[in-house]
Write a structure and sequence with these properties.
It is a single chain. The chain is α+β, with helices and mostly antiparallel strands and 118 residues long. It has a single domain, classed as Nucleotidyltransferase, domain 5 (2-Layer Sandwich), CATH 3.30.420. The chain has 4 helices and 4 strands; from the N terminus they run αβββααβα. Strands 3-2-1-4 form a 4-stranded mixed beta sheet. Strand 2 and strand 3 form a beta hairpin.
């Protein structure tokens, strides 16, 4: 029987393998901890983080009552999309890591999708 950490790593490796085939695009990567959610726009060709947003940002902390819920995740998604658009990034590939695509991850992706093209 595989435990949850092993299943997480299997999902993460599967996502990264599929993303590496579309390597000409910038990557929108997320990381979800127990209290916060983080998003980064990464250029893998140059190994540079172009923009980042999280629930730790001051403007998101003022609006969100809780650290990491669906509402604050959607604010992070909107924030990262605006920051990416300012630097001229309009097409990204979504890297959900090993997280399942529902709840907080889906809210972040839907909010980012308003300004970015996946």
């Amino acid at each position: 029987m595989r435990n949850s950490k092993v299943r997480f790593e299997i999902r993460k490796n599967r996502v990264r393998t599929r993303i590496s085939k579309v390597s000409d695009r910038i990557r929108l990567s997320i990381f979800k901890s127990g209290k916060h959610i983080y998003a980064q726009v990464i250029d893998d060709a140059n190994s540079v983080t172009l923009a980042s947003a999280s629930t730790l940002d001051k403007e998101i902390r003022k609006v969100g009552k809780s650290n990491c819920n669906v509402n604050s995740a959607s604010l992070v998604g909107e924030s990262i999309a605006v920051k990416a658009a300012k630097i001229g990034v309009h097409k990204v590939v979504f890297d959900k890591g090993g997280c399942k695509y529902h709840g907080i991850v889906k809210a972040l992706a839907d909010a980012a999708r308003k300004n970015l093209e996946f």
